[in-house]
Design brief:
The chain is an alpha/beta fold. The chain has one domain: Ribose 5-phosphate Isomerase B, Chain: A, CATH 3.40.1400.10. Helices cover 41% and strands 17% of the residues. It is built from six helices and five strands. Strand 1 (9-14), helix 1 and strand 2 (36-38) form a beta-alpha-beta unit. Helix 1 (19-31) crosses helix 5 (120-132). It is globular, with a radius of gyration of 14 Å. It binds D-ribose.
Length: 150
């Protein structure tokens, strides 16, 4: 797969609402010989998504992990949290076209999924699209470079 860099794990995180989907996606990636660093949560017990999103975002922002895949019920809370980190471009995607465009146009480095609103097959198709789509660069490069707040 295109984005996977040997030596760097894919950062994953979720809250309780995304836990089951996280496990399905983790298994999918590991079966394809990709290393995953799971920042939690580790059960369906109620929890707060920022507790897992901040450490996962730090790992991608610092370059230790690349890319990231995150999910909560709607995807919004965890995306809001991840995007507080300067180097993070977390994109909430619920179909493959959004995932493709998040990579081509936005160079998204964390895919965010709305676990309560998509089925597992759709989620895996979105993950595969995200992982296999390169950034287009060109006119999008300047735009992406202007995103961080200095
Ligand atoms: C949890 O009930 C839910 O609020 C959370 O998963 C997420 O949707 C928040 O944005």
């Amino acid at each position: 797969m295109n984005l996977y860099t040997p030596g760097k794990s894919i950062a994953m995180c979720s809250d309780h609402a995304g836990f089951k989907l996280k496990e399905i996606i983790k298994q999918h990636l590991q079966q394809a010989d990709m290393s995953v660093k799971d920042f939690g949560t580790y059960s369906e017990d109620s929890c707060d998504y920022p507790d897992f999103a901040h450490p996962a975002a730090d790992s991608v922002d610092s370059g230790v992990c690349y890319p990231g895949i995150a999910m909560c019920g709607t995807g919004n809370g965890i995306a809001m949290t991840l995007n507080k980190h300067q180097g993070i471009r977390a994109a909430l995607c619920w179909n493959v076209d959004l995932a493709r465009l998040a990579r081509e146009h936005n160079n998204a480095n964390i895919l965010v999924l709305p676990a309560r609103f998509i089925d597992a097959d759709t989620a895996l198709a979105i993950v595969d699209t995200f992982m296999n789509t390169p950034f287009e660069g060109g006119r999008h490069e300047n735009r992406v470079n202007k995103i961080p707040v200095h």
